[in-house]
Design a protein that fits this description.
Length: 289
């Protein structure tokens, strides 16, 4: 477990969930980690965990929707470590609702973070990689929702299908710089963002989900981190422009699932809690710089 010794990884949104899982996996493989996030407490906690693994970590305050902030973060990463080998455009938010009443602000926030934020992250990291001339690996976190959607998740899906397509163009564009670019489409992964989808252990949604997922469980951040590690390491050298689903087989069982009323009730309660949490980032999204 040391395929990334001497490498530096820049992972947006690594203060929580999937991003933290990726940071810890890449650190275990030997990489030093830069953590641009709006959640500074979460980012510091991830940095402490990276340090405990014997690697160095740099916490950076950056909103991925801000060109200036993400450019500064990528520059600070290179100034500190002298290189930038791996970039993971992971930070994302979920805005859901009916087309009849989604506010233009919710729509704009969804686009600004999940689509523009991925573009700005990849641009900032790729500019540094091209300048340094050592090649690089870029991974963008899309979603299974690039292939499936619903009457409330369509805005989120629009951003994720955009990411899956952008990596194909960027693979063409950045190949001459020896930079590979790929996307991952996670299914339901147990994180704060997906609390409403993953359900609580022993809850109604959780058990429905486990039943209809062929591998019989909800995903964990480390599942996705393993695939990032593959894409970032020697075995991933010939992969570029790909969108790889990692969902325990959920994709093909989705349509056959009829939610039971208890699961719907539980989902509404958990979504309410997630919405409250997202309110705290509104001021940051209004300060896009
Ligand atoms: P999470 O637990 O909410 O973590 C996301 C992290 O990104 C948080 O630290 C969050 O800060 C930060 N963040 C949010 N907006 C940001 C911004 N504008 N600039 C910088 N940082 C920002 O979410 P997750 O479930 O790990 O999701 C990570 C990625 O995986 C997202 O792109 C998501 O769409 C994708 N994904 C997740 C699932 C799933 O089931 N979990 C499935 C498919 C795809 P705050 O905590 O302050 O908001």
């Amino acid at each position: 477990m040391s395929q990334l010794i001497g490498k530096v990884a820049f992972i947006t949104g690594a203060g929580s969930g999937i991003g933290r899982g990726i940071a810890l996996r890449l650190a275990r493989e030997g990489a030093d980690i830069c953590i641009p996030d709006i959640d500074q407490d979460g980012a510091r906690m991830t940095a402490d965990l990276v340090t405990q693994l014997g690697r160095q970590a740099l916490v950076l305050k950056a909103n991925v929707a801000s060109h200036m902030q993400i450019q500064t973060a990528a520059r600070d990463c290179v100034n500190r470590f002298g290189r930038l080998d791996i970039a993971v455009a992971n930070a994302g938010i979920g805005r859901s609702g009916s087309v009849l009443d989604m506010s233009p602000k919710d729509w704009q926030d969804q686009i600004d973070v999940n689509l523009t934020g991925v573009f700005l992250t990849v641009q900032a990291a790729a500019q540094q990689m091209a300048r340094l001339g050592n090649g690089g690996r870029i991974v963008c976190i899309s979603s299974l929702a690039a292939l499936n959607t619903s009457g409330t998740m369509w805005a989120y899906s629009a951003t994720k299908v955009g990411v899956a397509m952008m990596v194909r163009g960027w693979a063409q564009d950045l190949g001459p710089h020896r930079i590979t670019v790929n996307a991952i489409g996670p299914g339901v992964i147990e994180t704060p963002l997906a609390a409403g989808l993953a359900g609580e252990p022993l809850g109604a949604i959780r058990s429905s989900l486990e039943t209809r997922t062929p591998v019989g469980r909800v995903g964990q951040p480390d599942d996705i981190a393993g695939l990032v590690n593959f894409m970032a390491g020697p075995d991933g050298a010939f992969m570029s422009g790909s969108y790889v689903v990692m969902d325990g087989g959920l994709r093909d069982s989705r349509g056959s699932w009829e939610p039971d009323p208890k699961a719907v009730e539980e989902q509404q309660r958990l979504f309410g809690r997630a919405a409250e949490r997202q309110m705290k980032m509104q001021p940051l999204l209004d300060d896009r710089g």
